[in-house]
Amino acid sequence: MKQVFTLFLLGAVVTVNAQTKIISQAIINTKTVIESPDGEDAPAGNVTTSDNGEQVRVMRFGGDGETKTTTWLKNDLIKTFSDSEMGRTTVIRDNSKKLTTTIMEMMGRKTGMYATDADQEEMGKRMDSMMRTRNQGGQSVNAAQRVPAEYSIEYRDETKKIAGYECKKALVIATRGTRKDTTQVWYCPEFKLQGVTSTGGMLGGFGSFLQQPSGNGFDKLDGFPMEYVRNMGRGRKMTVQVTKLVTDKEIADKEFEIPKDIEVRAMKDMQNGTGGGPVFQMRVGG
Questions:
Q1: Per-residue pLDDT for 11 more than 50?
Q2: What is the pLDDT of residue 234?
Q3: 163: domain range?
Q4: Residues 6 or more apart from 36 whose CB is under 8 A from it?
Q5: What is the torsion angle, in degrees rounded to the nearest 10, for the CA atoms of residue 174, residue 166, residue 27 and residue 217?
Q6: Cβ atoms of residues 226 and 218 within 8 Å
Q7: HSE value, Cβ hemisphere, 13 Å, CA-based, for 153
Q8: Number of domains present in the structure of the chain
Q9: Quick check: 193 pLDDT over 60?
Q10: What are phi and psi of 253, to 5 degrees?
């Protein structure tokens, strides 16, 4: 009886030690590179008209080039700053308040907007309704692309070091009907970041109002993604890699404050075209 009890305790210790650590404070530098085999890039944007007569300015992000991103995490607060050829973007997320504030600097102009999770959900439904009836260049929006994906993970017995961390390989498979898209991921099994499933990429710098409802599946990984490679339209490839991760530095609360020299408006007002001008809509990835 004594021997069985000892073995039970040993098993409990092994289980506790194997648990992935959750980090609640960190600074993460990430590099995103999008490459096209033929050098072609998506158009910068255009104006189209929705089924109810609204003018919608569609801005396309995800063109070729490099974007550098820095993310600050402190408990429920997350700040992401992105710098690319198109401009600079700062996104401040308060998970406790379910509020996202985005500041965009493009062509010498700064625009600030905020949205609650409920606002984003409603805006997503409206944008989807407009996109269903829009037809660009003779190609209509595929209904299958709007269906939330189901994700599965396949782990591989391969390792490599990224930013000083030992990482393992996995395949994140997104299934929509009969279509499957696979993302190659290198993740660190030692830790996960609180409230952050990944950094960099096309969506990380433009606020969670652009995130797909089904996410990216990285939350199912047994660790944090330090590098991933994703295939895009027209033969393009996106590579995202964490270049530096700092977890032992105290982050001041003022890092997450909204600059006082920028007017920040409600996203739903900007979507409704309050104040004149066309509705502003962003399209990621072409």
A1: no
A2: 80
A3: 20-137+146-284
A4: 64, 234, 235, 236
A5: 10
A6: no
A7: 17
A8: 1
A9: yes
A10: -60, -30
Cβ pair 25, 251 in contact under 8 A: yes
Q: What is each CA distance from 181 to 149, 153, 156, 235, 281, in whole angstroms? A: 10, 12, 17, 13, 26
Q: Are 20 and 192 in contact (CB under 8 A)?
A: yes
Amino acid (1-letter code) at residue 281 = Q
DSSP at 217: S
11 within domain boundaries: no
Residue 5 within any structural domain of the chain: no
Q: Which residue has the tokens 């009836």?
A: 133
Residue 15's SS3 state is helix
Q: Is residue 94 part of a domain?
A: yes
Residue 264 near residue 224 (C-beta atoms within 8 A) = no
CATH (domain of 166): 2.50.20.10
Q: 266: which strand partners?
A: 114
The neighbour count for residue 32, using CB atoms within 10 Å, is 22
* Residue 282 or residue 225, greater confidence: 225
Whether 113 maps to a domain, the answer reads yes
